[in-house]
């Protein structure tokens, strides 16, 4: 790749090179710039493009779900497909698109208003009053028909955070959209984007039965070598960088960086915890922000430091915001975890462990009634620092529900060190080996 480049002899002043480098890499890492081709998602890209083409070109109705974990590239995949779809010759340039997001359109009334707005039909609707949601939607789709009423423009309905629409009253929007997509009324494609694998379980029977059951999954089966390769390409400068020599040196330095043993260790840790692009880009952005004329390369130490920042993670930070009681419960759970080697525990066991600690102190300043402890436990669960061990939990009484701790010992110890004015005895208890 490097040799085929038309090496430009132009030499820019070093300062400008770095400004340009920062601009290009920042755009790539944090401005959500669309990649030319979504890496590693070729099959999904092709699949979705074909599907939407059938609607856009042939007017076939359809429905599909894009499912994958956070940051895996679902929204990016869809945007790439839409971009490429519009480049196809047969596709009508003013293919209609309606973009909804479950976080914004929190009920179907708002959603319908937004659909009307995005289809530019506010004037057509005027102050008409509709009997039902279905009637209103049918009116909108009817309004899109061509003058001779023979054919209708295809409309793509994109529903990001699709699972949230399932919480709307009677799932009216989903029902009606999927119903239209199943009948010959108007050509529409309904594309749902979600990170919930179990999303179909959320749909009512009559809604589910109208869905095509097509799903596109973005589950990564990435190998570590590929991950390192992605890191390298994300940090490399493109062939058309204005100063060829500068780009070549930079790319070489990145290659060396990626071969470093300590860098490999850091990347391995990130790879093990999450393989997605978003968290990788976060890590690289932290490294990049230190680069300047005065510090012209990314060193392994920078990556180490960036990784530390990334892993000073939300959970450990959350521990700082806990009350002393909640912190004590976490410590009790840590000890239970150590003793029972990670077996799940219930509130009663945690409370007993906590009591053991209190009993060792003659004049205890910590006196808590059971309901207070219960409340603290609930709060920890809301923060997802603890979670039910299995789904049958709902049937058991709260105190006996089996739970698991979602933070590990190193996170707890780190939080303890930084906890403002943590009582010494609590600290000692946390560090003691036997509860
Ligand atoms: N295969 C890929 N190739 C290049 N960039 C990618 C790829 N996958 C993800 N990215 C980048 O990672 C970032 C996160 O992707 P995106 O926003 O699409 O995630 P998402 O799956 O929609 O997450 P969420 O569920 O939180 O909405 C974006 O900046 C995107 O450009
Ligand atoms: Mg998204």
From TrEMBL:
Q: What molecular functions are annotated in GO for this chain?
A: ATP binding; DNA replication origin binding
Cross-referenced SUPFAM superfamilies: P-loop containing nucleoside triphosphate hydrolases
Q: Could you describe the subunit structure of this protein? A: Component of ORC, a complex composed of at least 6 subunits: ORC1, ORC2, ORC3, ORC4, ORC5 and ORC6. ORC is regulated in a cell-cycle dependent manner. It is sequentially assembled at the exit from anaphase of mitosis and disassembled as cells enter S phase. Interacts with DBF4. Interacts with POLQ.
* GO terms of biological process kind: DNA replication initiation
- The AAA+ ATPase domain is annotated at 60-221
Tell me the protein's name.
Origin recognition complex subunit 4
Q: Which organism is it from?
A: Scomber scombrus
Q: Where in the cell is it found?
A: Nucleus
